[in-house]
Amino acid sequence: MIAAPPEPQAPGLGDFANHDLLEVSMGPHHPSTHGVFRMNVVLDGERVVKLTPVFGYLHRNHEKIAEKNSYLASIPYTDRLDYICSMTNNWAYVLSVEKLAGLMVAERAEYIRVIVAELTRLFNHACLAGFLLQDMGALGTPLMYAFREREKILDLFESLSGSRMMCNYMRFGGCRCDLPAGWREQAAKVAADFVFFLDQFEALLSENEILRARSEGVGVLPRGLAVNAGVTGPGLRASGVNYDVRKVDRYGIYDRFKFRVPLGERGDVFDRYMVRILEMRESVKILDQALRDIPAGAIMDPKVKLRNLRPKPGEAYGRIESPKGELGFYLISDGGPTPWRYRVRPPSLINLTVLEDMCLGHTIADVVIILGSIDIVLGEVDR
Amino acid sequence: MLGRGLLRGFFETGRNFCGSYYDPARLTTVQYPEEKLAPQENARTVPFLVYDGEDPLAGLRCTACTICAQECPAHCMEVVKDTEKKADYLGKMQVKPRVFAIDMSVCMGCGICVEVCPFDSIKMDQVFELAREDRRMLLQLKDLAKSNAYFHQIHPGEAAAVDEARAEEKRKAQAKRATAAAPATPAIL
Amino acid sequence: MSALDSIFISTEHWLAGLAPAGVRPLVSMLLIIAGLMAVFGSCFALTTILERKILGRMQNRYGPNRVGPCGLFQPLADGVKMLIKEDIVPFSADQAVHFLAPVALTAPIWLAFAVLPFGRGMSAIELDAGILFFFAIGSASELAVFMAGWSSQNKYSLLGAMRAIAQMISYEVPLVLASIPVLIAASSLSLPEIVQAQSGFVMGWIPRWNVFTPWGLAGFALFMIAAAAESNRCPFDLPEGESELIAGFLTEYSGFKYALFFLGEYLGLFAVTGLGVTLFLGGWQAPARWLEWLPSWGWFAAKFGVLIFLFIWARATLPRLRLDQLLNFAWKFLVPLALVNLFVAVAWWQSGVWQFPGALELRWLLGTGLLAGVYVWLGRALKGGKTAEHHYNYAE
Question: Candidates 3.30.479.30, 1.10.645.10, 3.40.1280.10, 3.40.50.720; correct CATH number of A62-382?
Fold first, then answer.
């Protein structure tokens, strides 16, 4: 006989059961939660003693839809995962399918992929710095400056792929369409302007005593915990762990570019912010090299069929270093036109698992900043 | 020294404030709807059907092959073939669609229908002011069909390339028909 | 010159003269009150729109520019919006206290305008202890914040109110301490006399304003920082922070009462800015004799406008301080600095008898040297050893 399921119990509070605790729900509608995200926070006075993230408000059945759609049709859906960085989402997915189906990528397309991925990384990190300062109360001034630069890059994407955000640009074996005339020069100019913007941005922010006072020592993520929890991306590197998928896997043609990987020391909010600023400078270097060296040629292998891709039965895991962390797609094919299993490894979600550990002992004002420094996008967390 | 970073911050915002009055690169706001940015050539929003000439139904390039409806990720298109056949620009007998409906509230503007169409008959439009007060977003054939002249207007490069490719195919088809029709000249012995 | 200068006084006398002799003093007072409320009410409206436009320009966007020419009728639109909103009062709230809180905030602040000298002979009441009256009124309005938090019967509002009170009380101390050297210099608590004491020119062209002395400069900076904290302006606006969970003592207020809170806050800002102009910037005095064609109230307005612009600039640039950092800043940095400032001011005045050549330069050097040294030392202590430069390694 099957026993009745146990009664649901309120989460135990242990030693704190006798204190006067305040349970607060930073609900899905909140100016600082970066989307529809809820945190149940238990406070002892001003200090956080327990924090439970509640997400799923943006769940859209992405993985199940992909099981019903062909491989080609899933590409526009990947745009909408981390809706700020659509190009890198596309790349992670087509990389997985190319591994699954054993397809080769045209060389010019590889260079274009690197260029648009690094442009994406530039504006993602700039926007993150802006949003972090917004959470700290700087009333949107750095955010507006970051968005001014983002507009230039979005114009580039619009002239390349037709859409500013939902680019739907990569295809299996290459890219959808070639660079329009004058795009390279425009992109080179945007990269050059970005260096000036970074100098101004750092002048505004990096020495700012209030920013430092609010973010130094706050939300420290120890190295061991970061590695054990599977945290990836700038959050991991800010804790001092040298792990960048571009250097580890050398996917695409990243081994042809000279760039460095900045590492932080203490893993607090300031380190995560600073590592992103330094990464932006490295991305500009990669952009300069790629724009200089891009060869002429075809962007897609003409033999690759667009419709009706049926990879042989098997599985593949393709991963890239997206601006948020390691974005991976795990695909299992059964030989049919649609995947048998399609699983996204969302970096935002995995990075969120350490939120409670980072927030314990801090005040509510710090919780908002720590959440901002992890850099989550709910589209990716909930899929 | 305490306060140095703050003073640098003040300098930056002050510079931005002064610059916003004379430097267009500082204040980049476009005041919609009085000022509008022209869309780039490649910009895409929702699809439309292309027809050649003046008559939408007679010049419609679509042959109701339904490939676009099959490949559409959002499954927002409904295509039903007609029964009578007419010759297309290459001389082949093709059907036309009796029903061609796209639910614009579902369409995500991805452009995959355009990529897979073998007949260059569905292309991406650039209209973005699609908001309505009712729910009539299900567009039928008569709403979707727009002329080739309009296509040239919004995507000049792409339209020119498509026209050239179609003209080339027409020439080849005519050449093939000419050699098939003309009897082989016997060699004079 | 003097006709334009005393235009407000002569208008008020003429209008009061129209009333019968018995009620003339009462009518005169009512006219002054009406004038002050009109001027500072419209100043409030103007400041809200100017703040949004200046913030916008600093953030590379236009501010509101749809309602009226350049958006100048925006405050009217905002006022109408606030008036037609539903006035929600929580069921379990203390009704009387909830209603009285915005009134208790705004009413005392109007009183504070009574002692400020806006021009030559233009202070509504000439009290011998004007500045004492001013500080007393400023503290009275802090009670309203607590009334708001308590009456809402909402634990978040109460916490927010307590934090706001802690902030305001903490910053009263540097505010008063920064103004004590001025009182010593002028030997008077009366504001018009303080302005008079700053008349004249040193070396023929430098005005004798208090800000042009080492202790005055430091005092002015301290006063302005404390003033920003008193009025809950960024970077000290944690009690009303939007991105914090606890929306502060204003959570349960909607509609016109919310607008009254904002009116009270801005009026407090105006009052303390006016005091800053009076104490440190020479009040209504012109900076040079050849500039005295502009009326005295015009100079007051100009200096006032510059200070308000500085507050708006600070709001655009600086992120918010956390409450414990805010309180640390007040008690561990501003108060010691204010005390040292007081010492430097006394030393300045005692060494005023030095007549040897280079005496002025020496006094300046000693004053600024001591203040700068204490500033750097306190700054290091405040950072608590986090001054180490961040070191970022790179992996290849």
Answer: 1.10.645.10
